[in-house]
Every structure is written in structure tokens, then in C-alpha cells.
Amino acid sequence: MAFNTGLRWRNISLLEWSQVDLVRRCAWIHPDQAKGKKPIGVPLNEAAVSVIQRQFGRHERFVFVNNGAPRKKSDFSQWRRACAKARGQAGMCRMARRSMC
């Protein structure tokens, strides 16, 4: 989801159904949820829409949940492993601060 939207982990983990419009294929982050304190409009590509649609029925308020609650930072290691796997499949390397790989 992060790869397809460019959103930060916190924005994704706290995304609410009221912030998603699948008909218009967009989502939005409220200013108080954004790092820069400005609203963020997010276009949703086919992959992001598919991921969101698979979440239907899991929680009435939050899009992404784990055991009935919004995902927490403790789930971050699983997310990092998925990102590393996706980078490998795409032939990309992790960008380090001072080097390319």
C-alpha cells in the first residue's frame, strides 16, 4: 500500500473508511494526521484499490486492522520484510543515506 500511494506508515495504519472514496479512486489524509500539517489528496491506482477492497468487513472504522485494532508500530517489522521482498522482486535496492545500496 505504501509503495502504491507514497503514504507514511502512520497514515496507512490509521486510515479510516471515511477517508476513502473507491468510486473516485482517491483517499485523503487530514491536516492533523499529516507530518506537514497540510491535507494530502491521494490518488489510488488499481493495486491500492485492490488492497483496500480486500479489507471490507474487517472493521467498521479503520481500513487496516490487526486483531480488531488499527495496526501498530509493532507490526512494522512485518511491513519492512514485505517491502524488502517487493524491492527484490522489482530489482531495486534499499536507498541508504550515503550510498545507493
TrEMBL record:
It comes from Paraburkholderia steynii. This is Tyr recombinase domain-containing protein. Residues 1-101 form the Tyr recombinase domain. The keyword Electron transport does not apply. SUPFAM superfamilies: DNA breaking-rejoining enzymes. The lineage of its organism: Bacteria, Pseudomonadati, Pseudomonadota, Betaproteobacteria, Burkholderiales. One of its GO terms (molecular function) is DNA binding. Keywords: DNA recombination. GO terms for biological process: DNA integration; DNA recombination.
